[in-house]
Design a protein that fits this description.
The protein is of the alpha/beta class. It folds into 2 domains: 119 residues, Immunoglobulin-like, CATH 2.60.40; 370 residues, Glycosidases (TIM Barrel, Alpha-Beta Barrel), CATH 3.20.20.80. It has 10 helices and 26 strands. The chain has a 10-stranded mixed sheet. β24 and β25 form a beta hairpin. α3 crosses α4, α6 runs parallel beside α8 and α9 runs parallel beside α10. The relative contact order is 0.15. The mean pLDDT is 97. The structure holds alpha-L-arabinofuranose. Alpha-L-arabinofuranose binds next to loops.
Length: 501
């Protein structure tokens, strides 16, 4: 039998809430339609933000939201998105779908959205096609509290007080869509651009994110640190995070693969690719450790999730895809991996929040549905800000097909400030349940809440006509033992148990 041994006496570090972050780009129907419908829309909204979407997101306790891209960020000129809406530039979003971008969602609207969500702000600046002056002025516009050209402009546009910018990305994917740079060239540009991301409010310093690698590009991580780390060592606040992007494409980057039509082999192939996140964190982390053994620079996995072939009949540049039980497992597996690496992974952002890639919400006109990924993020929200607890699992069988073998069960365990332990487990098997004996060091624990996301059919997903095919439900398949519980995890399931003495 599988045994999960928890040592609740051994806390292993804080799981930063920002690891449960989100990403929203000017891409397809993520911002426009998905989040922002404008003040005059018939869809209920507050200052243009869809009420249904904001309410659903608030239940996830969204800790941070990255914006405006993605690849869009390195083509975005922030001054196009301020001032009276009727005067804002209309242009084509050449990167994503060739549609009109009317800039009606800009800096003020993003800040309003974060205010409504109660989350931290993460702005991604334009290093690829923007100037140092442009980046510097954006920061001044948002954060300077005094008399200056940009602060005055902000006030003219209706915002007296500065906003708080918590995180600032100095470019995005600069090895690719952000300028096709070499690591050395980017690192030198990073040194220059970040200089002008000034902390106008010394009490609220902006945390800077340096562009990290794509998947297993260890050469990039090494090259960037080789060129820039001397400054990170000398100057506090020079580089707070190094990013990492990793998407799961079942059939590889070119073909990608269907979101809903897959066999058992592809199920295991996909989950095995999700598990690869662990190796990526370890290996990029090992390079970071050589430069930064004290782990002062956090890893920021600010784009992760599944990326399939777009839904038939939709604009391929909109990256709209469905979300099945398989995506619930991808989310559960990945979040467990992040929790276990809480010493290094300090921020992450699921790509993307609404209507794009592995979204938590999908919209169609005035309708909105929650995806299986939403329900997993909701069950896992208790890990935010909690202490990772030592846990180890034994007796786990390797399952799968052909070369795609995966462990049947993955887990992570944390202790919240409320004194409640949260155990999240995934059963990766497409065809059989698994009994897990949970043992704690102490006795007398009681389950306070038990929830599950699953469906007998691994292809199941929610639609606008059937929105509750895969939801978070009460879980009852457990019994108490002397110092723990025996739990039966259904096949293809994500389970969260909360327990307390
Ligand atoms: O999330 C979609 C795209 O994926 C982003 O714009 C880019 O950063 C990445 O390649």
């Amino acid at each position: 039998m599988v045994k999960l041994i928890i040592n609740e006496e051994n806390k292993q570090g804080k799981i930063e809430p920002e690891v449960y972050g989100h990403f929203s780009e000017h891409l397809g129907r993520c911002i426009y339609e998905g989040i922002y419908v404008g003040e005059n829309s018939e869809i209920p909204n507050v200052n243009g933000m869809r009420t249904d979407v904001v309410e659903a997101l608030k239940e996830l306790k969204v800790p941070v939201l990255r914006w405006p891209g993605g690849c869009f960020a390195d083509e975005y000129h922030w001054k196009d998105g301020i001032g009276p809406k009727e005067n804002r530039k209309r242009m084509i979003n050449t990167h994503w779908g060739g549609v009109v971008e009317d800039n009606s969602f800009g800096t003020h609207e993003y800040m309003e959205l974060c205010h409504q969500l109660g989350c931290k702000t993460y702005i991604n600046g334009n290093l690829g096609s923007g100037t140092v002056q442009e980046m510097s002025e954006w920061v001044e516009y948002m954060t300077f509290n005094g008399v200056s050209p940009m602060a005055d402009l902000r006030k003219e546009n209706g915002r007296e007080k500065p906003w708080k910018v918590d995180f600032f990305g100095v470019g995005n994917e600069n090895w690719g869509c952000g300028g096709n740079m070499t690591p050395e060239f980017y690192a030198n540009e990073y040194r220059r651009y970040q200089t002008y991301v000034r902390d106008y409010d010394k009490k609220k310093p902006i945390k800077k994110v340096c562009c990290g690698a794509n998947v297993s590009d260890y050469y990039w991580t090494e090259g960037v640190l080789e060129t820039a780390f001397d400054h990170a060592e000398k100057f506090h606040g020079f580089m707070d995070y190094l990013s990492l992007h990793y998407y799961v494409h079942p059939e590889g980057w070119k073909i990608k693969g269907s979101a809903t039509d897959f066999d058992e082999d592809v199920w295991y192939k996909t989950l095995s690719k999700a598990l690869y996140m662990d190796e990526l964190i370890r290996r990029h982390g090992a390079i970071m450790d050589r430069y930064d053994p004290g782990k002062k620079i956090g890893m920021c996995v600010d784009e992760w999730g599944a990326w399939y072939t777009n839904e038939p009949g939709t604009n391929p540049g909109f990256l709209y895809q469905q979300n099945t039980v398989r995506d619930a497992l991808i989310a559960g597996i990945t979040l467990n991996i992040f929790n276990k690496h809480c010493d290094r992974v300090k921020i992450a952002a699921l790509a993307q929040m609404v209507n794009v890639l592995q979204a938590v919400l999908l919209t169609e006109g005035e309708k909105m549905i929650k995806t299986p990924t939403y329900h997993v993020m909701h069950m896992y929200r208790h890990h935010q800000g909690a202490e990772l607890l030592e846990s180890s699992i034994t007796g786990v069988e390797k399952i799968g097909t052909k070369k795609w073998m995966v462990p049947k069960v993955t887990e992570s365990v944390s202790l919240g400030e409320d004194g409640i332990i949260t155990v999240t487990m995934n059963n990766l098997s497409a065809d059989s349940s698994e009994k897990v004996e949970i043992q704690l060091a102490g006795a007398g624990y009681q389950i306070t809440e038990a929830r599950v996301v699953t469906n007998n059919d691994m292809h199941a997903y929610n639609t606008f006509d059937a929105p509750e095919e895969v939801i978070e439900a009460d879980f009852t398949d457990y019994t108490a033992t002397e110092n723990g519980f025996t739990v039966t995890l259904p096949k293809n399931s994500v389970v969260a148990l909360r327990m307390k003495k």
